[in-house]
Amino acid sequence: MDDSIAMQVTRYRPDKNSQPVPVDYEVPLRTEWTVLDGLNHIKAEQDETLSFRWSCRMGICGSCGMNVNGEPRLTCATFLSDYAPGPVRVEPLANFPVVKDLIVDITDFMEKLPRVKPWIIRDDDVTEIDGEYIQTPEELEAYQQFSMCINCMLCYAACPVYGLDPDFVGPAAIALAERYDLDSRDRGSRERLDVLIEKEGVWGCTFVGECTSVCPKHVDPAGAIQRYKLKAAQESVKAFLLPKALRR
Amino acid sequence: MSAPVTRVPSYQRRIGVFWWVHKRSYFLFVMRELSSIFVAWFVVYLLMFVAAVAGGQQRYDEFLDRATSPLLLVVNAVGLAFLVLHTVTWFALTPKAMVLRLGGRRVPGTAMLAAQYVALAVVSAFIYWLVVKA
Amino acid sequence: MKFRVLPFVWLTFSGGGVVAAVFLPVLVVLLAFALPLGWVDPSHAHLEGLVQSWFTRIALFALIVPMLVHAAHRFRYTVYDGLQVKHKVLVALACYGGAMVLAMAAFLVLTTV
Ligand code: SF4
Ligand code: FES
To answer: Where do the TM regions start and end (chain B) (predicted)?
Structure first.
């Protein structure tokens, strides 16, 4: 194995560049080094102005997402050696505006997330004082997969519909809506449906399926969105086509 | 409720018109969606067939004659390829798009996939029988 | 609950997708290849009887309409996302309008033959 690997890192310094430009670096290639380790090496040894986000280094905070060789990846969970002999192309997460170097503006995502009300909604006044909610293992299993999301936004970077139509509420937000809909403690599905039945909701999705392929936590947002479409359609049929007596 | 947001200046990247040619999965996706053109075309073709058959022996013979022209054969062959792509991808995506429960258990995706191919075989055999044998 | 058209369009799109996947391949193989190329040779009288039956005509119409909606809906998003034609309303009108015209043509053909 070579003892070093080329990294082509997209740089964008608003005061210096009019647009992002690729810059070549050379970093040591160690079996246990991730792309994030490579970036940290550049920052420590070669250019301390290189800017990027990271925190946990263990695939749980969701802040280190970047496009590596064109694929949205968690850079702390992506090994340099998988790209040997290189070069490894590191770009800011696709579909988001670039603030500086590898840092993207996530305002849009932060604004969209609360729209689907991703929290438990109750129609009664049960509080902690009344005791805990009881949930069986089966009830937990019903939504568990969708609760693994770490808000890394890789799915947004992979989604061409989001890239082309920024109004689309997007994969993770809908998966999270599904997560609370499927929670036995929650009573808020009607409220979420009212948000997602709009055309910026689920209907823009054309089931490309890439969000599910890139998700590091196997959340399956694509599946969640299609199921949501079916749910919205079923509810619409029930509410507007069935005679009153058959409605639930 | 929500904190005031400061919009930072940022660089907006553009997506080219040919964003789908560089990546296999995007390319397959666009091809899958383009199958819609041929679905529409075959509906038209089916109607032309029905009209020709109803128009009598002579018009029907003319129709068959025209259908063997190289141009139409090529168009239909390409269309059939797209249609097969549609069928295969549609079947593959169905188990991902819906959860079926039988007796409280989730029906596994492979079973749903197999059931669709069985349906395809049954329907095809029935239509073949209707047109050719019955 | 809010009334929206899109859920109904999507439902028809899905139904049409199933029809196109299950019914269309065999029809295409028969009508576009097997019959013209003489692989099979049912008599004209037999086919005439088939298309003249009300059952066939109603069944065909019931299969054709969702397939047209399917094609229109899918093509609409392909034009919009894939080709980035950004005239949302125009594209939608052209696609669904085209489907409507073809559905009416189908009605005419199937009722007059
Ligand atoms: S759904 Fe997956 S890819 Fe999308 S934000 Fe959540 S963890 Fe990341
Ligand atoms: S640094 Fe936290 S997920 Fe990569």
So the answer is: 34-55, 67-93, 113-132
Q: What are the DSSP calls for chain A, one per residue?
A: --SEEEEEEEE--TTT-SS-EEEEEEEE--TT-BHHHHHHHIIIII-TT-------SSSSS---EEEETTEEEEGGGSBGGGGTT-PEEEEEPTTS-EEETTEE--HHHHHHGGGG--S---SS---GGG-PPP--HHHHHHHHGGGG-----HHHHH-HHHHH-TTS--HHHHHHHHHHHT-TT---HHHHHHHHTSTTTTTT-----HHHHH-TT---HHHHHHHHHHHHHHHHHHHHTS-GGG--
Count of structural domains, chain C = 1
Q: How far apart are CA C22 and CA C50, in angstroms?
A: 20
The pLDDT tens digits for B36-83 are: 999 999 999 999 999 999 999 999 999 999 999 999 999 999 999 999
Measured from the alpha carbon of residue A59, the closest ligand is 2
**Cα gap A7→A40, rounded to integer Å:** 12
Ligand 2 neighbourhood includes A64 CB (under 6 angstroms): yes
d(CA A75, CA A80) in angstroms, rounded, equals 9
- What contacts A71, CB < 8 A, 6 or more positions away? A158, A214
Predicted structure pTM score: 0.91
For chain A, 248 residues long, the average pLDDT of each consecutive 10-residue run is: 89 93 96 96 96 96 97 97 93 96 96 94 80 88 94 97 93 96 93 91 94 96 95 91 67
C1 within some domain: no
Which residue is closest in CA terms to ligand 2's atom 1?
A57
CATH architecture of the region B19-83: Up-down Bundle (1.20)
Query: Nearest to residue A66, comparing CAs of A148, A9, A1, A136?
Result: A9
Write the CATH number of the domain with boundaries A107-246. 1.10.1060.10
CB A64, CB A75: distance < 8 Å: yes
Contacts with C111 (C-beta within 8 Å, 6 or more apart), sequence order = C57
Q: Are strands B105-106 and A4-11 parallel, antiparallel or unpaired?
A: unpaired
Q: Which residue has a Cα nearest atom 3 of ligand 2? A: A59
Please answer yes or no on whether B87 and C22 come within 8 Å at the CB atom: yes
- The topology (CATH level 3) of A4-104 is Ubiquitin-like (UB roll) (3.10.20)
The ipTM is 0.93
Residue with tokens 């005239």, as numbered in its chain: C87
